[in-house]
Amino acid sequence: MKISVIGAGNVGATTALFLAQKQLGDIVLFDVVEGMPQGKALDLMEAAPVLGYDCKVTGTNTYKDLKESYLVIITAGLARKPGMTREDLLQKNAAIIKDIVDNISVHCPYCHILMVTNPLDVMTYYALKVSGFKRHRVFGQAGVLDGARFASFIASELKISGRDVAPMVLGGHGDSMVPLPRLTKVNDKPVPELIEASKLNQLVERTRHAGAEIVSLLKNGSAYYSPAASAAYMAESVVNDKKVVVPASVLLDGEYGLHDVCIGVPVKLGKGGVEEIVAIDLSNEEKQALHKSADVYKETIKQLSL
Ligand code: TXD
User: Fold this and answer.
1) Cα–ligand 1 centroid distance for 123 (angstroms)
2) What is the pLDDT of residue 21?
3) Atom of ligand 1 nearest to the CA of 8
4) 80 pLDDT more than 90
């Protein structure tokens, strides 16, 4: 199995490391900066004897090396700086995504695309439209990350392991995201039974702004360990056909009462990409929050030239 990672910056290179550690297949790291993906790929190969993986990692500046990739993970593009919203990246990243997707369509027309570049939900929609691929082949990573952030805050509040928290965060990857405490469980117990409402509300708000919290600490870029871990987790479910159900940004065609917008909802990920959009019962309030989030992205999509 061949997996290509486009953009060998912070998220891309870290994703390649996690993919290698999961032994998911051979990895191609692509970037427009000459020598950089080759250097990082070589470095990753030199880590292999110590870390114990035996897949091949290569770096390239040439699109034809993507040939026959089963999965292409797109992390190329500008990252946020302090004070920027994800939407501020829109036009510049759209130009980058167009170029990449045009090349993917030529060199690996049968692949699946996992979008990571921001603004995530809009770039997923854009990649889908530019590629002309069916919707099960183009999906975006955000809900796994937002859920992981929510889970880590809950775990540190309860002084338990993050592994014991099963989070649920739907909606777009931005301030309008929809963390769902009612459906977030700690060892099968809904989290509102374990954390009092005002504290839980603080954790929800911190989750909504968790990306900005890291941007303001780093001052020159955005988070990458947790985004890369989340992308590799989704890749594993696709490549190894694990069929995990996770929130991912996908094109909705009537599901959850939404049309023609990519937004985070629970999906089953397997060899076929998005094999199912999973319906879960939402309260009226939760449904409204999801629709409000979708409206934000429907507006942003209008700024794209499609
Ligand atoms: O969870 C999520 N979805 C996100 C997404 C979480 C964190 C970061 N998120 C977004 O990922 C972020 O807002 C950016 O849009 C991307 C990449 O973030 P990263 O932190 O990796 O940015 P870097 O380190 O600047 O790397 C970007 C790389 C850099 O090496 C550029 O040379 C390369 O992208 N780049 C390109 N590669 C290939 N092809 C083209 N055209 C290209 N243009 C730039």
Assistant:
1) 12
2) 98
3) 30
4) no
Q: What rounded mean pLDDT belongs to the chain?
A: 97
Is residue 108 over pLDDT 90? yes
Q: CB neighbours of 114 closer than 8 A, spacing ≥ 6?
A: 71, 72, 73, 74, 139, 140, 141, 231, 234, 235, 238
**Substitution candidate for ligand 1 out of 36, 75, 173, 224 with most atoms within 8 A of CB:** 75
* Residues 85-95, mean pLDDT to the nearest whole number: 91
List residues with catalytic annotation.
Answer: 173
- Other CB atoms within a 10 A radius of the CB of residue 306 amount to 9
pLDDT exceeds cutoff 90 at 204? yes
**CA-CA distance, 93 to 86, in Å (whole number)?**
10
Q: Which domains does the chain show, CATH number per domain? A: 1-144+170-177+189-306 (3.40.50.720)
